[in-house]
Design goal:
about 70 residues, flat
């Protein structure tokens, strides 16, 4: 299991929404292809929306640029 996987699991266990936003965005940055990247970015975006976090706008823009959001 990678360090990122361990950090994601720990953030889920703590229900640390801010960490989840950042970690899923990080996973999107290093994903091997656009489909995997958008999978992770979608998770980050949903957590950001739920938290009312400012990262939501940037994540939305990234998903739109990839053709995954309106």
């Amino acid at each position: 299991m990678s360090d990122l996987d361990q950090r994601l699991l720990a953030a889920h266990a703590r229900d640390d929404r801010q960490a989840l936003i950042l970690l899923y965005a990080e996973a999107g940055d290093i994903a091997p292809d656009i489909d995997a990247a958008c999978f992770y970015l979608t998770h980050a975006y949903v957590f950001a929306l739920e938290a009312g976090a400012p990262e939501a706008a940037g994540l939305h823009a990234r998903l739109r640029a990839a053709g995954r959001e309106e």
